[in-house]
Amino acid sequence: MRKFIPALLLLAVLASGVPAFPEVFEGRISPANNRDYEDMVLPRLKEAKKSIHAIMFQASYYSDPRYIDTSPTNLLIRELIAAKKRGATVELILNQSDSDYDSHAAGENLKTGAFLANNGIVVYLDRPEKTTHAKLLIIDGRFVVIGSANWSYSAMAKNNEVSVLIDSPKLAEFYIKYFNDVKKECRPFLAPSQ
Predict the structure, then answer these.
(1) Which residues share a beta bridge with 31?
(2) Neighbours of 176 (CB within 10 A)
């Protein structure tokens, strides 16, 4: 009887219509760990022509004059604005959970969301009861960046972070659909004018 249990489970999965294995995508993969993240991602953002979709647990724009032109996250965030000015569609989803998980991240996201919204970027916040912990970037329906790195000083300058940049239009299409599914659960961020 024990030999038949795994076979019965496989038959049950197949009969349920649920794929036994997830879809497999092909693409060119480049590591973007630690300080390499900025070097790998910034040129792709500068070259973006059609679209940028991003989901970030935390994104920090530093307005302190000492860091405004040198912070890696400021450079990334300003490239979102530059891409928008070039005519690209730019959308960003930020975490805004009402849990006490990390009130610093929530505050940073509100500040960054306001900066971006006031510069023409479409920003969404997740629902208070949901935590969006993803770190995902899709550029021009081709490049996908996935990993552990938030857009924060600690992630870009101090932490050990693991990320990959994947050149795969099919994977990008898959994650744009994911982005749009998450966006349906979000609310638009309406920033007061500066």
Answers:
(1) 164
(2) 16
167: left (phi over 0), alpha (psi -120 to 50) or beta: beta
What's 84's DSSP letter? Answer: H
Domains of the chain: 27-188 (3.30.870.10)
Q: What is the dihedral of CA 163, 165, 169, 170, to 10 degrees?
A: -30
Residue corresponding to tokens 């997740």: 126
Q: Residue 22: is its pLDDT beyond 80?
A: no
Give the model confidence (pLDDT) of 58-97 as tens digits: 999 998 888 788 899 999 999 999 999 999 999 999 998 7
Cα–chain-centroid distance for residue 56?
Answer: 5
- Helix then strand then coil, in percent of the chain rounded to 5, is 40, 20, 40
Which pLDDT tens digit goes with each residue over 104-142? 888 899 999 999 999 999 999 988 888 889 999 999 999
For residue 3, give the DSSP letter.
T
pTM over 0.90: no
**Are the C-beta atoms of 167 and 180 separated by less than 8 Å?**
no
- Please state, in angstroms and rounded to a whole number, the distance separating the CA atoms of residues 85 and 87: 5
